[in-house]
């Protein structure tokens, strides 16, 4: 369950980040207004993906946050070309551990 949930969270995070990055490109970097169309679709996908989890919405959002932190930092590295620090990696590890703890309790609440 951990692997399936974590992979689904990573896909969800990418959908959210892309859905927010494309309008940023339009507003801050002079991109085409047509970027808003795939951004809207990406954000709709993000919302739909969040509904695929079996836990209560608040738990899903809390656990998702841990994976989002790591995904956003990987985006920072790969897309923005910013080198990650030890503090970045440590914070991502702590957030990911928090996600795993929350998911471990999904069937017990």
Automatic annotation (TrEMBL):
Top-rank taxon: Bacteria
Protein's membrane topology: Multi-pass membrane protein
Keywords, ordered alphabetically: Cell membrane, Membrane, Transmembrane, Transmembrane helix
Pfam family, one: UPF0060
Alphabetical list of InterPro entries matching this protein: EmrE-like, UPF0060
Keyword Repressor attributed: no
Record flagged with keyword Cell membrane: yes
Transmembrane segments: 7-27, 33-53, 60-77, 89-107
Any one annotated GO CC term: plasma membrane
Subcellular location: Cell membrane
Stated family: Belongs to the UPF0060 family.
HAMAP family membership: UPF0060
The protein, known as: UPF0060 membrane protein
């Amino acid at each position: 369950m951990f692997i399936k949930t974590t992979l689904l969270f990573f896909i969800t995070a990418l959908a959210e980040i892309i859905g927010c990055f494309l309008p940023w490109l339009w507003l801050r970097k002079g991109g085409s207004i047509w970027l808003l169309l795939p951004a809207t679709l990406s954000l709709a996908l993000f919302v739909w993906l969040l509904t695929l989890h079996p836990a209560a919405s608040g738990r899903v959002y809390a656990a998702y946050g841990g994976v989002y932190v790591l995904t956003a930092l990987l985006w920072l590295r790969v897309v923005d070309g910013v080198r990650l620090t030890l503090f970045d990696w440590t914070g991502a590890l702590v957030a990911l551990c928090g996600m795993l703890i929350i998911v471990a309790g999904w069937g017990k609440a």
